[in-house]
C-alpha cells in the first residue's frame, strides 16, 4: 500500500512514481498571501520560516513579514518585518534580515528560538543577506549572497570576514548557499548550479543544470533545487547526488514546486502553487526515486546572445536596450523597478538612444504583477518573454535579472536588484567597455 499522508496526495502522484515517496500538505497560504523567495524548514522539521507577503490595508503596497510557524499546530510563534530566515543546525536560532530594531534601518538579526530574544546588528549589512548557516570546526559560520562569510561569537559576527575563493574558469560564482559542515557551497556559474569548496578550488562539480538556490542535505552528499519543467511552464524539484553524479526528479505534481530545503531526517519541504493547492508541502523518501546520470555540463548561458534570439516577438527598439526580468515573489523587485524607472527618465532627459523595459516570466500571477506596478507607479514598457527563452536570461537563478544589449547583442548581465546609482554605473561601465572592444 502506498504510504500517503492524505487522500489528496493520491491525486498528486504520477502513476509511475515509486510507492515509497509520499507528499504532505503542511501549510496552506492565505488567498492573498505571497512568499518572498525561499522558505526554510528547521532541521527537526517542526518549524517553518518564510517571508510572508501581504497587501497593505489600502491595497497599494506589499508588506514582508518574517514568519515562523509551528507546523504540528499551525501556530504562528514569531512574525516581524523582515526576510531571508535560515535556521541554525541545532534548531536553536534563526538568522534573518530585519526591517526594524536598529537606528540604521535594515539589519542582520538573530532570534533565539527558546527565549524569543532578538539580537540586532549581528554583522554589517554591506556583507549581504540571503544567509545560510553552517558549523565548521565547531564554530558557527554564516555565508551571504555576496560570497562573504563570517564566524559567530555568540550572536555577533566576528570580523574580519572571509570571501569565497576565486577559482580559474569559474571565479567565485554567484549567490551561494553553504553545506551544514561549512566545507562546500552551491553557487551559480554561467547559469549552471555548481558545487565547490568554500575555501579552495578542489572538487568542483558543474551539474549542467540551470536552477535556483540549491540546498545541501545533512550529510552533504545531495543538493536539491528547482529547475524549469520540460514545457518551460512552472518548475519542478531535482536532487543531485554529488558523489555518484546522478540526478533524481521529484515529479507527479501538476503545479509549480520551488525552493526545497532539507530536514535532518531527509525530507524535503518546498513551496507549491497549483490549482489544487497553494502553500507548503513535504516530500518523504525522495532518495527512493530513480536516479539517472548527469549530462556532460555545458554553459546554460551562451557566450553570445542576440536580441532576436531572446525576444523574437519584439523588434529591437533602440541601439542600446536594457531589460529587467522580474516577478512578484521578490520583495526587491519594487525597489529595482523604481530604480530602473528613474534611470529611464534620466536617459530620456539626456536624449540618449537607450531603451529601458521589463519582462515578466510566464506563470507569474498577473494580478500580483499589476498590483506591484500600481502601488509603485511603474510605467515602464513590458515586452513578451517566451517560456522557452527564460533559461537564456539567467532569471532561473535569480530575480530580478538585468540584461544589457548593444547593437542587438547581449553585452552584460546582472543577477539581482540594483539601486539607481548601481544600475547607472553598471550601464555606463559596460557601454564604455563595449566601445573599447
Overview of the molecule:
It is built from 6 helices and 29 strands. The chain is mainly β and 437 residues long. Strands 2-3-4-5-6-7-8 form a 7-stranded antiparallel sheet, with no helix packed on it. Strands 17-18-19-20-24 form a 5-stranded antiparallel sheet, with no helix packed on it.
Biggest pleated sheet:
7 strands, antiparallel
Specify Rg, calculated over alpha carbons: 21 Å
Through-space gap between termini: 65 Å
What is the CATH topology of the largest domain? Neuraminidase
CATH architectural category of the largest domain:
6 Propeller
Q: Spans of 5+ residues with little confidence (pLDDT < 50)? A: 1-19
SS content category: mainly beta
Count the helices. How many? 6
Domain tally: 2
Roughly what is the average pLDDT, rounded to an integer?
A: 88
CATH superfamily of the largest domain: TolB, C-terminal domain
Widest sheet: strand order? 2-3-4-5-6-7-8
Helix content: 10-25%
Percent in strands: 35-45%
Could you give the count of β-strands? Answer: 29
- So what's the overall shape? globular
CATH class of the largest domain: Mainly Beta
Provide the descriptors you would attach to this structure in a database record.
437 residues; Neuraminidase; seven-stranded antiparallel sheet; 13% helix; globular; disordered N terminus
Task: Summarize the SSE layout with pairings.
Elements lengths: L6 H6 L9 E7 L5 E8 L5 E9 L6 E9 L4 E13 L5 E6 L8 E6 L5 E2 L12 E5 L2 E5 L4 E6 L2 E8 L10 E5 L5 E6 L2 E6 L7 E2 L8 E2 L5 E7 L6 E7 L4 E5 L5 E7 L5 E6 L4 E7 L7 E2 L13 H4 L9 E6 L6 H18 L4 E6 L6 H10 L6 E2 L6 H4 L7 E6 L2 E7 L4 H16 L2
Parallel strand pairs: 25-26, 26-27
Antiparallel strand pairs: 1-23, 2-3, 3-4, 4-5, 5-6, 6-7, 7-8, 9-10, 10-11, 11-12, 13-14, 14-15, 15-16, 17-18, 18-19, 19-20, 20-24, 21-22, 22-23, 25-28, 28-29
Helix pairs in contact: 3-6
